[in-house]
Amino acid sequence: METIVAASGNKAKIREIQEIFQGFTVIPMQEAGFLGDIEENGSTFTENALIKARAVSEKLGCIALADDSGLCMYALRGAPGIYSARFCGRHGDDKANNRLLLEKLSDETDRRGYFESAVAICFPDGRTLTASGRTFGVILPEEHGENGFGYDPLFFSTEIDKCFGIASAEEKNAVSHRGRALRALAEKMRAEGIL
User: Fold this and answer.
1) Which of this chain's residues are annotated to bind substrate (predicted)?
2) Inter-axis angle of helices 11-20 and 177-191, nearest 10
């Protein structure tokens, strides 16, 4: 069974990738021997996903898969977008990011937005495939629930009629932007005879 090295150490992401790419063994990049950070200096989710997947694939000579995702708000002209994880100026401070988002939306009547995910897979021979997915909702005025991470406690999914912060993993995964992107990527791989 071939191995896909995921350019991530996030266990939930690895599990989601493994569920969709069952013909492969999926391991995190650290386990494969890739240590250190990858500078995400692209201007789109797709560019950042490609940067990460290429860095791992080229260094390790393996099949590498990466994603980049974030929250895009119509009233904020797409922000926080590619800066979602570091919206407040520090990477991964979910509480501060959520507080800043609520501040920015405090005078806005349009609270609609979407999570977008772009995924990229790179092969040792240089071939690449990309795909993306979105899930739509509105931002609530305060956090609800303890499930998920990031903006999930503020994001009310209009597709499942429930806040991601209280939705089960199964409910969220049914409309997940990352899941949609990964399934679209799997379809492209099947069309090319890879999966």
Assistant:
1) 8-13, 69, 149-152, 172, 177-178
2) 40
